[in-house]
Amino acid sequence: MLYREAGDYKKSYAEDSQTFPLKLDRWAYYALLAVAFLVVPFVINDYWASAVLIPFLIWSIASLGLNILTGYCGQVSLGTGGFMAVGAYASYKLMTSFPDLNIMIIVLLSGAITAAVGVVFGLPSLRIKGFYLAVATLAAQFFLVWLFNKVEWFYNYSASGQISSPTRSMFGFEVTGPTASASAKYLFCLVLVVGLAWVARNLTRGRIGRSWMAIRDMDIAAEIIGVNPLKTKLTAFAVSSFFVGVAGALMFAVYLGAVDVGDTFGIQKSFLVLFMIIIGGLGSILGSFIGAAFLVVMPVLLKNVMVGMLGWPSDMSSYLELVIIGFLIMLTLILEPHGVAQLWRVTKQKLRLWPFPH
Amino acid sequence: MKFKKLTAIAVSALVAASPLMANELEFPSISYRTGPFGANGAEVADGFSDYMTLLNERDGGIGGVRINAEECETGFNAEKTVECYEATKDSGALVYTPLSTAATYQLIPRVTADQIPLLSMGYGRTSVSNGDVFPYVFNFPANYWTGASVIVNHLLDINGGSLEGKTIALAFHNSAFGKEPIRTLEALGEIYGFDLTLLPIDSPGQEQKSQWLQVRREKPDYVLLWGWGVMNQVAIQEAANIRFPMENLIGVWWSGSDNDVIPAGDASNGYKAVTFHNVGTDFPVFDDIQQYVVDAGLAAGTGENVGTILYNRGLYQAAILAEAVKVAQARSGVADITAEMMRDGMENLVINDEIMEAVGLKGFGPNFTVSCADHGGPGLGAIQQWDAASQSWSLITDFIEPDMEVIQPLIDADSAAYAAENGIETGRCN
Amino acid sequence: MYDQLLYGIEAAINGLMTGVMYSLVALGFVLIFKASGIFNYAQGVMALFGALTLVGIQSGQVPFAGLINAIFGTNIQNFGWELPAIAAIILTIAMMILFAWMVERYLLKHLINQEPIILFMATIGLAYFMEGVGDLMWGSDIKKIDLPIPQGINNTIDSLTYDWFGYGFYIDNLDITASVLAIILVVTLTIFSQYSSTGRALRAVADDHQAALSVGISLRSIWVIVWSIAGFIALVAGVMWGAKSGVQFSLSLITLKALPVLMLGGFTSIPGAIIGGMIIGVGEKVFEFVVSSSWFGDAMGFTMNATENWFAYVLALVFLVFRPQGLFGEKIIERV
Questions:
Q1: Given 2.60.40.10, 3.75.10.10, 3.40.50.2300, 3.40.190.290, which CATH number is that of B23-142+280-378?
Q2: CB contacts < 8 Å between B and C, how many?
Q3: Is the interface score ipTM higher than 0.95?
Q4: CB contact under 8 A, A52 and B14
Q5: Tens of pLDDT along B222-251?
Q6: Chains with at least 3 CB pairs less than 8 angstroms from chain C
């Protein structure tokens, strides 16, 4: 009753193919955007921005990217951390080499560079499948991190090998550097998230997305009906790496401000993003966001409950945090193996009928 | 209903993290008791916290104002460090001691923008000792470069003043932390005529066979160890395995804790490390800690860590900061000081025998003074040696001076580059 | 050049030994993957947990002491006894069996017939969970393993090779011990799976779950057995690696060393795990030796070091491009 697909009539093709074909969805989406753009920037403080919202937005981009590759195209990748590092170092080199270049262009260019690198490391996917591919992409992870640590050109020959982001502004507002305001940083990330999520949503609905899914579901069958596996897999790697590269660039330039490559873009980050999409839901845009929220916001929340409200010792709390998160992951999988996004689909199904039983 | 309740808890939990101004001296302790370096981080955090508890219990705080040294756990993770920093910075935080070189690099621009001092004692970015460029960052009384120089000076001592033709290998953690001493050692190598071999070891460093086979082949006279966490234990064990003479293996202070030598057992006997404070519990302050903190059940940890190297380092850090608070209180005439007054106090800090004796730490660390231009102090360091039979460290030298003529130009160059890169105006101290 | 050759051989032999150490971790993976198709991410944490439990029981530590003290305000740390090593080992094995039973009862039972990636994710949840529980139970300080494990350079080999070549080879006694243990483990496992009825059932399950079920093999008890054995292997790996570095959190990261071994040897082959480990070990040690040596620098104009982390993966990648199922893996047959 509350949620209905029926009765929403379309009068033109354009209406029929819009991003959110359902009126209800559309209004919910507009409301969410309005809050995100018009309310949040005015109430946000440094803590909310740096500890909760900005990491959430950045990890959402990364998990969108990986979800395109793994969820839609079926290619398991554990190289996400390495590709994020490519984005970060690309943006650092661009920022320091072209001080006048707009930061938005720098971030997008970093994504493009990462896409190119992603395609190169995607080549083995034509031969290697499943878990074997997952472990093969680890080669990218370790090699890239090693490379950024080893070749001094990447960090402009600084003594310690750390890179730190200079201040850059957009429309007169600083978005990177230590003095950038919380709302400027937040809005910058939000614009990118909204733009990229829109791109992802429409890509996955279109021809390219369908060919990805064909490859995922049965690659040989897809090949027989005329989907070119080389082109399809490599576009998936390119698009996915573009997203991941943008996330890496934002992570470095906007969020952390200084990066030690092994520490920030290590293997555990690759795993983290993979956890996000599995928990959120493979092959679901919404799931990418839910997964990022689960693994980024949840620990902060638990920590604040246990240390801040209950006053437990901080070490005990962080052990318990591990136990609780592990437990929740297992519980989620037992209750709903297809991720939290599936729960939402089931809820929608229920809402369609509610309050009537049939 | 249930869901509503959960949401309510969730929202209030996130809100609870927002700042509350309190009439206390805030020393947010950004610590890590978990994760790959948890065992080390816990000892430092215990020392820091126990000393602050002692001041509260015995003296009622500093200058009558109680101290709040609440811990924020990071697990040695960059993102959690940012979260901890943002959660505590508006609560009137006086000073940060992040205990991680990577985190220090991250926090330097932030604390400068937020005008809160940061003390990286024996870690972090070395060139911050130029107070002209880094007004809010301190790294007294010693840093990586002075540490490297002190080790070289010690080697000069035991080699009759010449290292001509000797080879020194540096086995280092392949990160910002491990790379710090390379330039200093290269500069010193040119002066004293020793060869430097670099042996990078990737984090975490559980597998170092290649590096130690190389040591065995090339037989360097000395190996310097610049590691943290599991890398240290494995390095000491591997060095023992290839029968490398332990007294020729010298660690930085982060490679010279009890945790590093105990797993190798008797094999680690004779291992040396440089340090910037004394070892053991032979100081009056430890009686007070036993009485007011451990016996009262207020110890941050189990109380077992009291007197370990890293515990002493945490304690030393707390003691020096407490002295800086006293200076700040005296100079401003206010008991409940602000971060800016704290900075002023740290910048005018003088540590001498009298002060150290008054707090029951006579001879625990070297004397030093801090000034506007010099945030690093003289960088004195001593050499400590492990005795496996008695399971204890002892200092085998006095506090040695580093080659400041070599280090100062490096500091000036690096800080000038930072100032140029970030458009910082210098000349504050003239 | 002669001495460089000797050094190279020494590096290769050490690589062989190190490879066996990697294989010890990989073995547990293979067992579980064969029997249940689960890629068990928690294997490294199991190694940590096993070693922690062993040391904790042996030194008479009170489990969950920190938690108990925090809740009840007590101050208990230790039972005040020292158990003999053998008793501690038996108790630890019992603990690992209990753990295997609990994993089956509370986790795997609910996830039968799920996709591999979901099962993989479940083991990640398990890894988080155990890491937290392990720390809560035994604390996070670095512990020394108190077992008579030989360590250090093997003098016999050193002097023998010195007599032969004029250069004594360095072989670590710990590595020799690990190799002997690995051989014993592989032989026992092979005999067990070939000749015992449980072993046959195990192979049947590995071949086809449904066929095994239909001839009356209890899938659930087989899983408990497999996880127990994997737990035991994890304990051995944990003790061997822990002997070198002390038992501490980083022990759980040895998983990363086992991954390239697995993909090179194939996820389903026990001998593959051993041989894959050796190839990886030799490859990475020799490569590191070559690219960091001065003659390589003279010839190429640059040297590299600390390459071991990525080289193992790149080596495995190269092998995989030619044999996508790993060296000893079962051929992947795809039907449309």
A1: 3.40.50.2300
A2: 110
A3: no
A4: yes
A5: 999 999 888 999 999 999 988 899 999 999
A6: A, B
